[in-house]
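Page 42, continued from yesterday. The earlier attempt failed because a stray header line got pasted into the input along with the sequence. Redoing it now with the clean sequence only.
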Amino acid sequence: MIHLNKVVGVVTVRLILGFIFFMQGFGKVFSIGVENVYNADFFYGTFKDLLPEFLIYATAYYTSYIELLAGFLLVLGLKTNYALYALASVLIIVTFGHGLAEPIWDLSHVMYRTILLVTLLIVPKEWDKFSMDTIIRKYMNKSKNLTE
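This time it went through. Structure tokens are written below.
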């Protein structure tokens, strides 16, 4: 039997990280609009002399939609590993982008997200009892046992 604190700890970390990214992506996609994110000083204004325009454009769209979709998947606990891998790529892109724009910058908003993300990657999946992945896994095992 898995200790309740481990189960509650994992679901708390997953939900917090999921909502952080989901709400950030939601704001970029639906409230601000990805075109406005792209045209903001930080994206195009900062990188126009450093990177090709298509790369800046792709990055604005990629990070916005991955934050939205992968954050939503984390909240549901569905395809959790894939969502975490995608969000890790966003954090790497953001770290590179901030470092390129300003060599000495505040890492705090990246670091705590990275710590939460890595925590979810390394804890045993069995601890995440309240997720769609667990429900699907139980259903698949049950139906597999019935057919044997």
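Notes: Residues 70 and 83 are 5 Å apart (CA to CA).
Reminder to self: strip header lines before submitting.
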